[in-house]
């Protein structure tokens, strides 16, 4: 029998949760803005970025399916410096990422009449606390089921919105020509401040390679089934395909509804962003479409908030156990579960503080989210090397190491990440090139 049989539900999960984490700011904000500013000019860059990050993000799934260890265990065994590096970056980026995605989730709720009179910061805090309750009470089962529901919902709704626009005849020749000849060229150094965040979270930061590895242990415990490498990678590839597909959907929506008019949609406050986003969609598709766009947009950001709030504390808790030598960080004991829950509570409070600081400092949604995206891209070469080095080490059986194609793709991807990181730093801090 093919993979599509009764066993499917036993191993489908970590890859879909990964998609829920990836489909968020990079899609709703960056991809939509890419379409609004440059039409379809950046579709190629989005596809290339997804393609070149693939071998690094696949590492966690293949490593765990091949060795029975988490990727974090692999980091510890491969190089004593890998685990502390990952811990430091996770501690720094985790709080700001969780705060950023919950911030966007909250401002999107202002488009719903029931919540329109609430302060957006209060709604952001409500989303953050709700996600915390879901995870603390429902644990991995709740994360698994909600992620599948939300990813399915946003994929179907964005597809429906795209088809509605195309059948309406909104895809004109001017837009089609932007695939190869855009009046607003994105290929200028002055656009690096947008391109780097776009690539940073497209489809997601490279350090997320660790997350599916950790979720696999919880999935195996719930399903009482250990997937083969083929099954585990099928699950990951399905989630990865959905992230690419929805990215193209959001670029298409941005291009058709906003090209030539939506370049400034990220300016102003978070509320202004949310209102501009929905307004531009409804003006192009029709007032009825807000009941498609609002749920799709919120599903994208809520799923990201939920998964990030689970994954960052899960990773840090696992690292703590590995460094102290008390356990392997696989959530197999009550000690590990308690430590994980404590880290989640710490992240909730730290994110609340970050949100309040952002409010007092007048930081807008663009600066908040794009700052996190930029940091993710600049740290990507480090995590890419760690992942590539570990999967091809003697920890992995020879038959499961990367073959010639994936090795070559990894080296090309590493060069790609290093080149754009160097270009961004040179341009931003040393004035290299045209400003």
Q: What this model shows, in words?
A:
This protein has 16 helices and no strands. It has 435 residues and is mainly α. The protein has one domain: Amino acid/polyamine transporter I, CATH 1.20.1740. The chain is globular and about 55 Å long. The mean pLDDT is 85.
Quickly describe the structure.
The protein has helices at residues 8-11, 14-22, 25-38, 43-67, 71-78, 82-109, 120-167, 173-177, 192-200, 210-223, 229-258, 270-285, 290-324, 334-360, 365-391, 404-430. With 435 residues, it is mostly helical.
Query: Spans with pLDDT under 50 lasting ≥5 residues?
Result: none
Gyration radius from CA atoms, angstroms: 21 Å
How is the biggest beta sheet arranged?
none
CATH superfamily: Amino acid/polyamine transporter I
SS element count, helices: 16
Give the topology, please.
Blueprint: H1 8-11, H2 14-22, H3 25-38, H4 43-67, H5 71-78, H6 82-109, H7 120-167, H8 173-177, H9 192-200, H10 210-223, H11 229-258, H12 270-285, H13 290-324, H14 334-360, H15 365-391, H16 404-430
Helix pairs in contact: 2-7, 2-10, 2-11, 2-13, 3-9, 3-11, 4-10, 4-11, 4-15, 4-16, 5-15, 6-7, 6-12, 6-13, 6-14, 6-15, 7-11, 7-12, 7-13, 7-14, 9-15, 10-13, 11-12, 13-14, 15-16
């Amino acid at each position: 029998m093919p993979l599509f049989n009764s066993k499917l539900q036993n191993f489908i999960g970590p890859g879909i949760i990964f998609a829920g984490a990836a489909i968020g700011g990079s899609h709703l904000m960056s991809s939509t803005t890419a379409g609004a500013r440059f039409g379809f000019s950046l579709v190629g860059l989005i596809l290339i970025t997804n393609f070149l990050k693939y071998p690094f993000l696949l590492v966690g799934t293949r490593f765990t399916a091949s060795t029975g260890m988490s990727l974090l265990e692999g980091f510890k065994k491969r190089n004593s410096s890998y685990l502390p590096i990952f811990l430091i970056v996770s501690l720094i980026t985790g709080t700001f990422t969780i705060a950023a995605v919950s911030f966007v989730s909250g401002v999107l709720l202002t488009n719903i009449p029931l919540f329109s009179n609430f302060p957006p910061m209060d709604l952001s805090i409500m989303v953050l606390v709700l996600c915390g309750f879901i995870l603390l009470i429902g644990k991995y089962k709740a994360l698994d089921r909600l992620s599948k529901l939300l990813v399915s919902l946003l994929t179907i709704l964005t597809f429906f919105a795209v088809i509605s626009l195309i059948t309406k005849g909104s895809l004109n020749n001017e837009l089609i020509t932007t695939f190869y000849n855009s009046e607003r060229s994105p290929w200028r150094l002055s656009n690096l401040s947008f391109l780097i965040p776009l690539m940073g979270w497209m489809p997601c930061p490279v350090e997320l390679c660790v997350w599916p590895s950790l979720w696999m242990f919880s999935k195996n415990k719930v399903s009482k089934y250990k997937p083969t490498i083929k099954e585990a990678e099928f699950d990951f590839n399905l989630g990865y395909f959905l992230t690419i597909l929805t990215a193209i959907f959001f670029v298409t929506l941005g291009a058709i509804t906003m090209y030539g008019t939506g370049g400034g949609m990220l300016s102003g406050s978070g509320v202004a962003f949310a209102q501009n986003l929905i307004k531009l969609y409804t003006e192009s598709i029709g007032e009825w479409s807000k009941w498609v766009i609002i749920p799709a947009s919120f599903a994208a950001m809520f799923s990201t908030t939920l998964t990030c709030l689970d994954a960052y504390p899960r990773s840090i808790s696992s690292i703590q156990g590995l460094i102290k030598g008390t356990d392997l960080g696989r959530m197999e004991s009550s000690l590990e579960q308690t430590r994980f829950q404590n880290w989640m509570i710490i992240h909730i409070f730290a994110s609340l503080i970050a949100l309040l600081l952002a409010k007092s400092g007048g930081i807008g949604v663009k600066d908040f989210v794009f700052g996190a995206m930029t940091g993710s891209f600049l740290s990507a070469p480090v995590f890419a090397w760690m992942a590539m080095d570990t999967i091809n080490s003697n920890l992995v059986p020879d038959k499961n190491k990367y073959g010639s194609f994936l090795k070559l793709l990894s080296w090309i991807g590493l060069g790609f990440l290093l080149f754009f990181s160097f270009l961004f730093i040179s341009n931003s801090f040393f004035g290299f090139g045209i400003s």
